[in-house]
Structures are given as structure tokens and as C-alpha cells.
Design brief:
single chain, mainly beta, about 55% strand, globular
Length: about 120
Amino acid sequence: QVRVVESGGGLVQPGGSLRLSCAASGSAFRFYAMGWYRQAPGKERELVARIFSGGSTDYVDSVKGRFTISRDNAKNMVYLQMNSLKPEDTAVYYCNARPSATSDYWGQGTQVTVSS
């Protein structure tokens, strides 16, 4: 079992920045695919960003150029740096760990609110 815990959410003004952190357990963390998802009230959960074991990344179009996903395998950590935040970025953000093609683990979520 992989335990996943997110942190770093909060209230920020439009145009501001926030960095989310995710800790995932496991000695094989470096092989996990890791991702950030978000869900706004009344909307479907959507993939925001992914980072794979080789370091490649992908992003949903709406955050390209503003968000950066990264990982620190020595610390079993994944980060989401969010810049130029917009009100439409408001959501609960979830960290996802995928240690294999047949298993997924989720954190509890952290609230990000972008408002003036």
C-alpha cells in the first residue's frame, strides 16, 4: 500500500503563486508515475499534470506555462508550482501515485482558493 499526503493549499489572490507538496511512501517511489488532479465544485475531476519515472511531464492545456510539476526522488516528494493563478484554478487538488499499471493511490486533497 502507498500512502499519499498533500499539503500547501490555501487562499491566494489572482496572479499569485502557490506551491503544493505531495509525499508518497515506498522505497520504489522513483518508479512511480505521479500526478496532480483537481476537482472544482460541481465539476469532474481533471488531470492537471503528470510526471513519469523518467522525468517527462504533461499538463492540461489550461495550466501550460503557468504550472510546473517536479519530483525529488530522494525525498519521496512531488511538487506543483502554480504561478499566475486564476479564479478558475480554484479547486481541491489531489495527488495521485501510480506504482503500477493496475494500482492507483490518492491523497486526501488540499484546497486551493484563488480570490480577491
